[in-house]
Specification:
The chain is an alpha/beta fold and about 280 residues long. It is built from nine helices and nine strands. The strands form two sheets. Strands 2-3-1-4-5 form a five-stranded parallel sheet, with helices on one face. A four-stranded parallel sheet has the order 7-8-6-9, with helices on one face. β2, α2 and β3 form a beta-alpha-beta unit. α1 (about 15-25) crosses α6 (about 145-155).
């Protein structure tokens, strides 16, 4: 039996992940009372009834100490019952935004600010996250991209190191992305904005792409950047980093940064077991 525990931050995408796993053939149960966890697993393992793929969702709840759930899982280990832990996460900023949009109360806020509930929940889950088999940060993930990450783990059975690399193109005149880890400025390249026929286009259009990449400096920059990112990623993984946001900026975020972000994405795609996404924040401005 493949037994998966799905947990993580409230608003991090646990329910969405469980629905996707259900579509993959997993039998999913969410938020059992803690004393019933062992009973549930025993039932699932009975002869002639054993399920091949089972998911148990666990939330942090004010009325059900998470430490008790962890203790029940330790009992399963002692019995020799293996399980995997999928931890769904997102940045505090993203979680706050999701709660504002949904107008829901955080389960640990208890009449206080949502931010207080998020802080308390993160403290409770800190050690459990460190022990998780898979951590997926959904801060910059589309639903389609989340499914791709789950497919890698639970269908293709690929090695998964839980690092999510997000490439973001942006315009400096609109401000830098708040969550960016590494920033690269490509304003040293000639600007297509000043060429009449290229001005209304973006780096997603072939004429702009071809113009930007026609300069030897652009190709050399891409080679050096790709080489550095390929060096950094394994070291970030070794240090336990779960999300890496790479910002590539130009003046307006429509031409040069979009082109180089697309080129970096193509250079990194399918080159490792980490997740990879791309966002053009200002291309439509």
């Amino acid at each position: 039996m493949r037994f998966v525990i799905v947990t993580g931050m409230s608003g991090g995408g646990k329910l969405t992940a469980q629905k996707m796993l259900e579509d993959m053939g997993f039998y999913c149960v969410d938020n059992l009372p803690v004393p019933l966890i062992g009973v549930f697993v025993d039932l699932m393992r009975e002869p002639n009834r054993e399920m091949e793929k089972v998911v148990l969702g666990l939330d942090v709840r004010a009325d059900q100490p998470f430490e008790e759930a962890v203790a029940e899982l330790e009992k399963l280990k002692e019995k020799g019952i293996p399980y995997e832990v999928l931890f769904m996460d997102a940045s505090d900023e993203t979680l706050l935004k999701r709660y504002k949009e949904s107008r829901r109360n955080h389960p640990l806020a208890m009449g206080k600010r949502v931010a207080d509930g998020i802080k308390k929940e993160r403290e409770i889950l800190e050690n459990f996250k460190k022990e998780a088999d898979y951590v997926i940060d959904t801060s910059n993930l589309l639903t389609r991209e989340l499914k791709e990450e789950l497919d890698k783990i639970f269908i293709n059975n690929e090695n998964y190191n839980s690092l999510m690399v997000n490439i973001v193109s942006f315009g400096f005149k609109h401000g830098m992305p708040a969550d960016v880890d590494l920033v690269f400025d490509v304003r040293f390249l000639p600007n297509p904005f000043y060429i009449e026929e290229l001005k209304p286009l973006t780096g997603n259009d072939a004429p702009v792409h071809d113009y930007v990449m026609s300069f030897p400096e652009a190709k050399e920059f891409l080679d050096k950047l790709t080489d550095m990112i390929n060096f950094l990623i394994p070291n970030y993984v070794k240090e336990g980093k779960y999300q890496l946001v790479i910002g590539i900026g130009c003046t307006g975020g429509r031409h040069r940064s979009v082109t180089l972000a697309n080129e970096l994405y193509a250079a990194l795609k399918d080159k490792g077991s980490y997740g990879l996404t791309i966002t053009h924040r200002d291309a439509g401005k």
